[in-house]
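To: structure subgroup
Subject: Chain for Friday's discussion

All,

I'm putting the inputs and outputs inline so they're searchable in the archive.
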Amino acid sequence: MVVNSELSDQLAGNGERRVWIRAFWGFRPEDGGYLGFTLKGNRDRFIQAHQPGDLVLIYGADQKETEKDQRRQVLGFLEVDPVPISDAERSSEAEKRLKAANGWTNRWRYAVPVNQAWRIDRKIDVKHVARKTFETHNPVLIASRCELLQPFEAAAALKLPVTPVEVFGQPPLSTAQAQSMRSLSTFFEPTKGVMPSFGERNFSVEDADNRLYVLKLEGDTAAFLGRQRHDVLRKIVVKVGHAKIPKQRCDAHNAHLPPACQFRWKVELFSRPFSGGALAKQAEDRLKQRFNDEFESLGGEFFLVDETRVLTEFAEITRSAVDVIVGI
């Protein structure tokens, strides 16, 4: 069965995110980074009907396999990539053992990968979120193959407070991401621009201690560069530079990435402070030259480096001016 084309067109055109709903015996994306279907036809139907930006709301099935306090409760959201995979491709060893121990190896084999996941931080019965959908659709089909929520139901669901959770097969969350709790709609809403101000400005810039730093790009390096995985094995993308406070510089770079982006910068290394920006700039220039000689330049301040050698090369440049290099 294909999603009603009139409803699909209406939802796609109103600028709102569509939300599918589906039941499971729990919510464990940290061990199972996939949305699985027992029947291949249900997976194929979902892929065919999926649109960019769609989310999937998971609730606890009203069955003995679900923990009692999770039955009929909305549990979390998934953002998926509509490409066919097997469940094993995104299953941790714990997930595989759980399925084998319970005789579930033939369930949910036909899957799509999960990119991001959020746990709902409030107890609420699924009927309060999807009353109309349950009135107009067979609950068995909702539980097994996914159905679309009504637009007003989706809008209400996206206001529920959520916290990002780890997804097996995806890069780990930063501490700030893991601790952030807000409604899911705000994770994707545009930020407000800065109101411009006008008039005369007078300011001075003072020299101060500066640190040399290396930022590491966390995420799928092969996908980021559009290369084969074997070409970037044990390699990472880094940015080098100097700043008074490297963490602030890192946060500034991450602020320019969309919240839904699967990549984030992390402070990988930084030196003890140089006594002024000029000395730090000289060290930065030497570090760039060193990285250019030893690794692959990606242009500007960016390099593709051997992860096992980056600390050694960084230390060689900074040792002449400062004593200690700190790894994060």
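Points worth raising on Friday:
The first strand starts at residue 19 and ends at 24.
The radius of gyration is 24 Å.

D.
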